[in-house]
Amino acid sequence: MAASDKALLWVTCAWARQAARDLPAPVREQLPEIDWPAWAALPDALIRPSEHPLKIWVAARELTPRTVQQLINYRRVHPELFSMVP
Fold it and tell me: CB–CB of 74/81 below 8 Å?
């Protein structure tokens, strides 16, 4: 995996893990196509990459781009979920 791919994966993983933990359940339920369990499990795989090469490969090549595309689509349909309210 290229260094740029690793960096993107780490940033995305950190975001998704935080989002999965901090988003209220009703909001996550409105984003059902996001694979929240896969994002929650990814940090453990990254800690021991030699034990989970396929999981990391799938996250880098499939999970990340699919999640980004789903978020773009959800933002068009549910812009209220993406607004920042103090």
Answer: yes
CB 60 within 8 A of CB 70: no
CB 80 within 8 A of CB 56: no
Q: Tell me which residue has tokens 């929650």.
A: 40
Other CB atoms closer than 10 Å to residue 16's CB: what's the count? 22
Mean pLDDT of the chain: 81
Name the H helices within 2-84: 3-22, 25-29, 36-47, 53-58, 64-77
Our CA angle for 20, 22, 25, nearest 5°, is 70
Q: Are 9 and 56 in contact (CB under 8 A)?
A: yes
Q: Give 30's DSSP letter.
A: T
Output the pTM of the full model: 0.70
Rounded-to-integer distance, Cα 49 and Cα 22, Å: 26
